[in-house]
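quick q for whoever's on today - can somebody do inverse folding on this one?? i tried earlier but teh output was garbage lol. tokens:
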């Protein structure tokens, strides 16, 4: 059920760059990189784990289509894909959204560790004896 205070419920069609009947892709309103996109279900759900099998298939299909579109338009060198699921994980908008962030050579000095940097004391694992 859509909620009136949710910024992702009732999006104007002009914001949608790709879509199907269950999900859509928009550009992030506060991008961390050129082309930063969000893949979100049309139904108001907070968590990835609340989605149906069909919604998961739609979300992942649109994630792939968005990647292909970004390859054509921006030719990034890689991608960071992430979901902040729950307040403890940093979710600030309570409507599931998958971040697709194009990455470019040189956008950070040392990209090793990637998503591990959400917990900075755990990010430099490659300097230890573990794998």
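ok took a stab at it. sequence:
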């Amino acid at each position: 059920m859509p909620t009136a205070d949710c910024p992702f419920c009732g999006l104007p069609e002009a914001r949608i760059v790709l879509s199907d009947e269950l999900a859509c892709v928009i550009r992030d309103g506060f991008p961390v990189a050129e082309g930063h996109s969000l893949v979100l279900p049309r139904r108001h759900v907070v968590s990835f784990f609340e989605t149906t099998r069909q919604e998961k298939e739609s979300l992942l299909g649109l994630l792939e289509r968005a990647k292909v579109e970004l390859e054509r338009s921006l030719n990034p060198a890689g991608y960071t894909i992430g979901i902040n699921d729950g307040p403890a994980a940093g979710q600030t908008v309570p409507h599931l959204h998958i971040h697709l962030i194009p990455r470019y050579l040189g956008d950070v000095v040392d990209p090793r560790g990637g998503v591990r940097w959400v917990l900075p004391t755990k990010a430099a694992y490659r300097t230890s004896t573990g794998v």
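fwiw Helices lie at 53-74, 120-123. also The two ends are 44 Å apart (CA to CA). so keep that in mind when u check it
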